[in-house]
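Tokens in:
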């Protein structure tokens, strides 16, 4: 089978979970099929059964934050470029709204089945209207069109599937649930601590890893951290702010708080693994999280998790077994769970070990690639039988 993946992100240009997913999924699929990835930016790679090509936006639209909606139009121009080149594929698979237009054009021009993976839903992220202005109308339009035209829609959690059916006109049989995975070989507990010394991290500490975004609940976490024991440290490995205003807000919020260690960088995997491995607890306080791959990374490193009971997180983190689940947007509940993790290291360690076992049993990329190939085949079979839409 020949597979065409369209994505905004692909290494080395990764800033969010979708890019991590496309990276690992493409490599796992390449053990079963011939895979081409088309992504944003300057990116040309060639590996066995895997080719990567980067695309730039139309010059007339590129580079400008002159108006808030410019990035949305820029994304559409990249989709046009992706669809312009010759296609040798049996199925086209898009990730996020950014490449939805490109996927629909490939579907129409080349008569291919379209598979769409949603990593979040624009209708459930209304705060993006502040970031994109009327560009938010463009992103929601592009997402809706792609979902409703797709031969198959992959939801990364059962909760997301329910949200898709509630927000889009799509037949239930076309929406399937496939969880994301984690590289359990790259993310595994290590005794190395040099990264901790280099970044000024002291034990015991609670760890947050993620973008600086309203979605990630980082400011609720900062409120909760005021109730942590004096001996405990909160480590924020947080960068890539959604807006300059959020970066300024975080700078102000951590100022004068020595208990908080802010690492304003996207660290290499080996350093992040060290942070995960020696954390007393990992915390994911998101107010919206369709899946939460970051929790799998922590669990793979045998670290217990405190996370919001939202979206797909309860399908990953088992309350009382691999960590603690709390209601989103509740700093007091978050503080109590963090206190419990720090107060009972033996129990936390057992939860971390259970998390590692859960990752190994259910969240390998090899297993997910095999299930994805099944989705492709069903989409191909249905596309051949169905009248043109």
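Residues out:
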């Amino acid at each position: 089978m020949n597979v065409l993946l369209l994505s905004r992100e692909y290494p080395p240009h990764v800033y969010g979970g979708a890019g991590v997913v496309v990276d690992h999924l493409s490599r796992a699929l390449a053990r079963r099929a011939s895979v081409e990835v088309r992504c944003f930016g300057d990116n040309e790679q060639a590996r066995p059964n895997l080719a990567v090509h980067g695309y730039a936006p139309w010059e007339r639209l590129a580079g400008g934050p002159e108006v808030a909606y410019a990035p949305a139009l820029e994304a559409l121009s990249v989709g046009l470029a992706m669809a312009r080149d010759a296609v040798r594929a049996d199925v086209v698979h898009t990730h996020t709204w950014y490449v939805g237009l490109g996927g629909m054009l490939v579907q129409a021009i080349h008569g291919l089945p379209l598979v769409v993976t949603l990593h979040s839903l624009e209708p459930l992220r209304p705060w993006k209207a502040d970031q994109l202005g009327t560009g938010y109308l463009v992103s929601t339009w592009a997402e809706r069109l792609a979902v409703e035209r797709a031969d198959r829609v992959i939801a990364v959690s059962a909760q997301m599937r329910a949200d898709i059916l509630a927000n889009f006109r799509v037949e239930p049989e076309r929406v399937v649930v496939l969880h994301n995975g984690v590289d359990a070989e790259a993310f595994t507990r290590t005794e190395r601590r040099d990264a901790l010394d280099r970044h000024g991290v002291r034990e015991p500490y609670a760890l947050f890893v993620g973008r600086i975004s309203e979605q990630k609940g980082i400011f609720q976490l900062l409120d909760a951290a005021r109730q942590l024991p004096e001996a405990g440290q909160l480590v924020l490995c947080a960068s890539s702010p959604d807006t300059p205003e959020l970066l300024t807000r975080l700078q102000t919020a951590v100022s004068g708080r020595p208990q908080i260690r802010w690492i304003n960088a996207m660290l290499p995997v080996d350093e992040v693994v060290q942070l995960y491995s020696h954390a007393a607890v990992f915390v994911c306080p998101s107010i919206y999280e369709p899946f939460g791959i970051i929790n799998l990374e922590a669990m793979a490193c045998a670290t217990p998790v405190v996370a919001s009971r939202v979206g797909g997180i309860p399908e990953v983190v088992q309350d009382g077994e691999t960590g603690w689940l709390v209601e989103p947007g509740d700093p007091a509940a978050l503080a109590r769970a963090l206190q419990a993790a720090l107060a009972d290291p033996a129990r936390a360690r057992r939860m971390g070990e259970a998390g590692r076992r859960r990752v190994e049993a259910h969240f390998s990329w090899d297993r997910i690639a095999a299930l994805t190939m099944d989705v492709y085949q069903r989409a191909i079979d249905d596309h051949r039988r169905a009248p043109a839409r």
